[in-house]
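Lecture notes, continued. The same structure-token format from the folding unit now serves as the input rather than the output. Read the line below as a description of shape only.
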């Protein structure tokens, strides 16, 4: 994937954390050919590769391999504007995470966020299509740490995730990262950053629930979302819709079109423009989620089949063999 420019809102926070640890940030920026104004700007537009290299060097100069996670843990609440207000005003953590995925395109149209139901669990995932390391080690750890910190703050619960996956490879001292984030374990080199919560946390009420604020945020965001969705691609929007409803069975083309407020014919035409079809999109999504789910040794195949909208265990086995040429059991063993 070409290293396209991305809108970043965390550069100042990560570099600020580096400065607190003795790094001469201005010298670092000069070495990277970047202006010092990057520190003060609320949002900067830079390619993912440039920011990844910048953060990695900042972490190296600071002598802190987990700089991104530490920056997120010290971030003040209220830093994410409409996305955070929309999420914090929701009735439950599940609804709040749905709001994060819904409003995320207002911040970024390259980095994708998806909320994916799996029956008894649900996942908030961060991906960049075509970039297996997603946003890189520091920014990936920042994102996971921020999701956990915000979730714990608004519920008043420990919110220990069912699973956490990082797109980047394991750091030299992963046990320290796990301790910082309050985790017992995590997977690495997963192709996406993912936080999966169990139902007891997902259904927990938010202490910050505010129906009036939630309604106001939605009214303000709707016109802006209508503008950014075409740039992000209809396929990405449809994928998010299918992910959210897959555990209840594959949504029909009609229901997807109704959710996007377009005709079925228009939706098919838009998907064709994005180089796919509705059936292909659903199949690709199921394949991706199935491969990730099979790697989770604590998850039964029956549970995974239900989460992906399959009525029978045998159906996912047949589909998995078609996708990968092997069975789920053999795939899990590697």
């Amino acid at each position: 994937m070409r290293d396209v420019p991305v809108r970043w809102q965390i550069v100042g926070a990560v570099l600020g954390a580096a400065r607190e640890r003795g790094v001469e940030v201005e010298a670092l920026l000069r070495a990277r050919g970047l202006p010092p104004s990057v520190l003060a700007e609320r949002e900067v537009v830079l390619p993912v590769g440039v920011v990844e290299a910048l953060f990695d060097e900042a972490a190296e100069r600071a002598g802190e391999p987990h700089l991104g996670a530490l920056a997120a843990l010290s971030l003040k609440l209220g830093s994410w504007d409409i996305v955070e207000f929309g999420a914090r005003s929701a009735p439950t953590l599940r609804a709040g995470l749905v709001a994060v995925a819904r409003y995320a395109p207002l911040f970024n149209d390259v980095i994708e966020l998806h909320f994916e139901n799996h029956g008894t669990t649900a996942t908030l995932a961060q991906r960049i299509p075509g970039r297996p390391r997603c946003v890189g080690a520091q920014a990936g750890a920042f994102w996971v740490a921020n999701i956990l910190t915000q979730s714990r703050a608004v519920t008043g619960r420990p919110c220990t995730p069912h699973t956490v996956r990082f797109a980047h490879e394991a750091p030299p001292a992963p046990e320290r990262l796990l301790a910082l984030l309050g985790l017992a374990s995590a997977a690495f080199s997963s192709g996406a950053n993912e936080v999966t919560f169990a139902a007891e946390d997902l259904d927990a009420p938010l202490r910050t629930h505010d129906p009036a604020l939630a309604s106001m945020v939605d009214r303000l965001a709707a016109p802006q979302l209508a503008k950014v969705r075409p740039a992000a691609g209809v396929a990405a929007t449809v994928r998010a819709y299918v992910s959210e409803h897959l555990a209840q069975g594959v949504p029909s083309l009609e229901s997807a079109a109704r959710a996007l407020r377009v005709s079925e014919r228009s939706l098919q035409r838009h998907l064709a423009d994005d180089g796919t079809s509705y059936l292909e999109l659903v199949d690709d999504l199921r394949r991706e989620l199935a491969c990730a789910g099979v790697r989770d040794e604590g998850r039964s195949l029956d549970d995974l089949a239900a989460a992906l909208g399959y009525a029978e265990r045998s159906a996912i086995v047949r589909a998995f063999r078609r996708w990968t040429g092997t069975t789920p059991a053999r795939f899990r063993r590697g």
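Point for the exam: The longest helix spans residues 211-232.
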